Amino acid sequence: MTASRRDGAEPGLPSVSPVAPPLRGRPWISQDWLDVVFVHWRVDVSAVAPLLPAGAYPDTMAPDGTDDGATTWVGLIGFRFTDTRFPPLGRLGRAGSVGDFVEVNVRVYTRDDHGRRGVAFLSLDAGKLLPTVGARVATGLPYWWAHAAVRKVDDRVGYAMRRHGTHLRSTFDVRVGPAVDEPTPLETFLTARWGMHVRRAGATRYWPNEHGSWPLHRASLVTLRDDLVAAAGLPFGLTELEPDSVLYSPGVTTRFGRGR
After folding, report:
1. Which of the four, 35, 39, 226, 244, has the lowest number of CB atoms within 10 Å?
2. Which residue from 19, 16, 20 is spatially nearest to 65, judged by alpha carbons?
């Protein structure tokens, strides 16, 4: 495939939109994602394709916003979960309880034969045990319990985590820059993902989500040391390279629909 469209879409595949399609039916969970740091590297599709659930394929876009059919992306993402709610049951515990924690995840970008674009999570390290176990059982996502923390001082935001029972660590620190008035096609591609492909009970399901358009800032990497990307099966040494994209967002409120 050698398309040259600026939206990164191939014939029959919807373009990446910064606006979420509305969920069908009542959301089953709602969460605030805050102080989100996106660090990305470009990789060849051959490095990602074997890691995806059946029926999902690498979604592709070159750095200039065109689709060369060979370039996909790996994201190392840190953020804070707060105010987890299960409509119509309400909030999961009181402030600072099980619904509030720090997460660091490794994700790649997917499409399927139904024209749905999303992400696949290769690992998710969360700073509280109960939501880690609950999410792993309920969704089949590869959650791990970790010691995880965030630090925010002036224009810098940093995440640090260590997976319990292992040597695996990840620490990264960024300096937040100017707000993005108009995201590039690539910045939209890397952030505006309205679902995830998850393998569960022998089938690949698509879990849709919706939230407002990301308020983005460009950012610069100050420090990074990471074991998670290589541990997920991606090329060793990738995170020792300069990232191809670093972004920050103060956050959004996200709602998930049921997998189908």
Report:
1. 244
2. 16
Distance CA 137, CA 209 (A): 19
pTM exceeds 0.85, yes or no: yes
Distance between CA atoms of residues 69 and 73, nearest Å:
12
Query: Buried b vs exposed e over 118-133: b needs ≥16 C-beta within 10 Å?
Result: bbbbbbbbbbbeebbe
Closest CA to 228 of 178, 167, 185, 176: 167
- Say how far apart CA 238 and CA 73 lie, in whole Å: 11
| Cα-only R_g, the chain | 17
pLDDT digits 0-9 by tens, 150-193: 999 999 999 999 999 999 999 999 999 999 999 999 999 999 99
Residue 126, helix vs strand vs coil = strand
CB-based contact 173:51 (threshold 8 Å) = no
Nearest to 21 by CA among 213, 233, 197: 213
Element (H, E) at 47: helix 45-48
- Cα distance between residue 215 and residue 15, in whole Å: 20
